[in-house]
Amino acid sequence: MGWLGLDDTDSLKGGCTTEVLYRLIQSLPQHVGVGQARLVRLWPFARRRTRGNAAVAVELSTSDEPALLAFLDEYWVNHLLPLKGVVEESEHSEREQYPSDPGMVWFTDKINDEEFYRRGLRGELFLEQLPIPNHSWGGHGRIGATLAVLWPAKRTTFEAIAWRESTNKNPRQLDQNAMNDIEEMAESFLCRDERLGTSLLAPRGASPVLFGIRTWTQDAANEALELLLNAPETEATSGSMVFETNHATNDHLDEPIEIRVEKVEILKGGHTLIHSGEHRCVAFKESGEIARICQQLQPHDILECNGLMAPDRSIHIEVLRIRHLVTNQNRPSCPTCEKALSSMGVNQGLRCKKCGFKTEDAWTETHRDLPRNQWIQPPASSRRHLAKPLAESPTVQKNL
User: Less CB within 10 Å around the terminal CB: N or C of the chain?
Assistant: First the structure.
């Protein structure tokens, strides 16, 4: 019995680490038993992260471990090492792209180190920091491969993935009726963006993945997989598998922080930066209602938010709720002209500049129409893989 981890086999040019693991599993000797495959998302700001920022692992059982390791040695040389060095520049991101650097690890006994796993979700790790496996192959990919093995899987979801028989077909062909049925399943999540009215089952770009179906349970993943695979309008696939994942678990988040707004800065592109003491919180334009709310905040407003800290120490807001809003105070309007009255000086009252109406100095309060005391998160298409949906899981508010 042991655990095999794998990572960093893809690039923007193509490929997918989930498919690489699937091919490896299909090639295993008959004496090797295959357990549950897992798909683990990691810190999204890592400089050398792969396109999808995911690593994979699988539990394997064998009575002849030396024979299994000999097979893995040969498989590494013939199938995985050739994937090294692939790189493609991004037209959509200024982030420096690194060549793929596959890595594979074998642990005879699974190590329980939840703290190290959490470090891999919230910051960058390096090869010299890793626990030493019983056997390893390759380079930088060993980091993600190790973290996929170390994942304690205390909270889990599932994703059913199928790969295209030919990646030359474009666009992907999926049966619309089956997609509608899956998106309406009670046990599926993040399969549709209701705001845009679009499906999230099929990825974009050069990935060999035909579709990915996220569900809360393994049974639902298997059911949805069979439904879409066997639907008449779904294109042919080269294989499929259900992965246990850390998607929608909030494993990456600590407790929310409370901030008192000092300044709101609207950045180029429609993003919003909130200054609050030692904290700087960013609401990206793509976060939808969060971004719109943040642009309307004022000094002394109080809110709670949560999100990952980026390398520049700013917090990228993933969930937010308003705890207190300051009240706007305005001069009253002239009862005749309906224009705002102007002050005539300290303790001298107010006057309408148009008709001359005068009255005592006064202020009127205007309450701001923003949602209070309720958690808000970005639309489905703009959330991190690890973000737990609010609507599908009402109890999430207790766990934020």
Answer: N
The domain boundary residue, chosen from 133, 150, 167:
150
Question: Where residue 285 sits, what CATH number does that domain have?
Answer: 2.40.50.1010
**Residue at 346 is within a domain:** no
Q: pTM for this structure?
A: 0.86
Which tokens is 198 given? 């679009």
For tokens 């089952």, the residue is 201
Q: Is the pLDDT of residue 257 over 60?
A: yes
- Identity of the amino acid at 184: E
Strand partners of residue 5 = 57, 105
| Domain housing 201 | 157-245
Query: Which of the listed residues 150, 182, 211 is the one where a domain comes to its end?
Result: 150
Q: Is the peptide bond before 171 cis (omega within 30 degrees of 0)?
A: yes
Beta strand pairing call for 364-366 and 257-260: unpaired
Please answer whether residues 395 and 249 qualify as being in contact, where contact means their C-beta atoms are separated by less than 8 angstroms: no
Query: In 3-state terms, what secondary structure has residue 16?
Result: coil
Dist. CA 216–CA 127, nearest whole Å: 33
Domain count across the chain: 3
Span 20-65, pLDDT tens digits: 999 999 999 999 999 999 999 999 888 766 656 889 999 999 999 9
- Sign of torsion, CA 142 145 149 154? positive
Within 246-314, strands assigned E span 257-260, 263-266, 272-276, 279-283, 302-309
* 294 and 162 part of one domain: no
Residue 360 falls within a domain, yes or no? no
> CA-to-CA distance for 62 and 60, rounded, in angstroms?
7
* CATH code for position 70: 3.30.70
C-alpha pair distances (Å), 287 with each of 78, 209, 290, 294, 345: 43, 26, 6, 10, 45
Q: In the chain, helix, strand, coil percent, each to 5?
A: 20, 30, 50
Measured between alpha carbons, how far apart are the two ends of the chain, in Å? 36
Same domain, yes or no: 39 and 142: yes
Residue 288 backbone phi and psi in degrees, to 5: 65, -115
Residue 182 within any structural domain of the chain:
yes
